[in-house]
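Input record (one chain):
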Amino acid sequence: MKTPAPPCSTAVLGALLLCVPTDAGSNGMALTPPLTWRSWNQFQCGINQTLIEDMYERIAARTRTVGGKPTSLLDLGYQHVGLDDNWQACGTGVKGSFYDADGNPLVNTTTFPDMGAMVEHAHAQGLKAGFYLNNCICGIGPGTFEGEAEEKIYQGSVRALVRWKFD
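The corresponding structure, as predicted from the sequence alone:
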């Protein structure tokens, strides 16, 4: 059975949408797609501070050549780097979470001994350090905290991001 052609109005609308001028990029943003590196995409749970700091150095290292010139991934626009899951001290906080009673996130200091120093290391390479506050690995989910306790977690998480100087 033959599929009927779309109504003329649909075809005309589609053609018109292709002709609509846009103002994308006039503010200097979105000139290139977002270029970022995230720990989960490469290592999933197998991470620690030393490994992340090594990745910062590798992204900033001018070990490739582009047009005969030593070039880093940072030179090519990869300025954002992000730490995802597995930094948490799962099960050590309130209700088996990774938050203390004041809402501060608890870090596994065996694998991440100094978050602030790690972020400083990223900045020293010219990178912007991102952080994944959502939780996937610790087994706490929606409804674990409510009301005042949930508000404390939001506030504690923001305090931590500021204290560690994540971008």
